[in-house]
Amino acid sequence: MTAREGDGGVRLAPVTYLPGAEPTVERVQEPVRWAIPLESNVDDAATPSTVDEDDDGDGAAGSSAEGAEEALTRRLRRSALSERESRTFLAQRGFDAGVVDAVIDRFTTRGWIDDAVLAEQLLYAGTSRKGQGRRAIAQTLTARGIARDVADAALATLPDDDDDRALEYARSKAHGLRSYDLDTAMRRLMGQLARRGYSGSVASNAARTALTEQRGSGGGVQFR
User: Is the residue at 204 inside a domain?
Assistant: First the structure.
């Protein structure tokens, strides 16, 4: 579900939803989310619901494909997982490797696990909600187990606008640093930007600009 720039704005490639699921957002700019259906009777493509909802699957038989599907279904209702995270989840609950492979294959074939879609969602969250730079987003994709080629493809869609996003974030934080002297404000703001994956030069320029704007060039602001 890759976002593409078109003449009329942003278009999103189609994504396969789980049976009975509805997107939880309406804005076309944001990647569409999907969820495992909460009801078990949507059709025979949905996984069965024979295990109690409060059971996290720890006691399921290691050879039970049905038990593995149940456990992973309930987990995916809470939040999306990468393929690696899904494999780890099932393995930690004692399911046999063959069962894990079969269940993962079924879920990925139907689009219930999709690393490319998850990468886009993480990219959107990093840029639009967390004000992160490219480096921090790349680290998040790696930590979530997104394959290198999938992560690189997602990052390739990210505009080369770290400077702009860093400045936008710095401006949003500058007012809260008014009570600090300039050196302290600069140091704190640069630290916040660095933690969001911006390089030293990008963080320095953004912090300097934001603090200068916020305090006013006529207010005696001086940087060395």
Answer: yes
Q: What is the rounded CA–CA span in Å between residue 181 and residue 179?
A: 7
pLDDT tens digits for 84-99?
999 999 999 999 999 9
- DSSP code per residue over 86-129: HHHHHHHTT--HHHHHHHHHHHHHTTSS-HHHHHHHHHHIIIII
Question: Model confidence over 137-164: pLDDT tens digits?
Answer: 999 999 999 999 999 999 999 888 889 8
Q: For the ranges 31-45, 76-90, 203-217, which has the lowest average pLDDT?
A: 31-45
Residue 173's domain comprises 162-215
Evaluate whether residue 190 is within a structural domain. yes
In three state form, how does the secondary structure of 75-96 look? HHHHCCCCHHHHHHHHHHCCCC
The verdict on residue 193 lying in a domain is yes
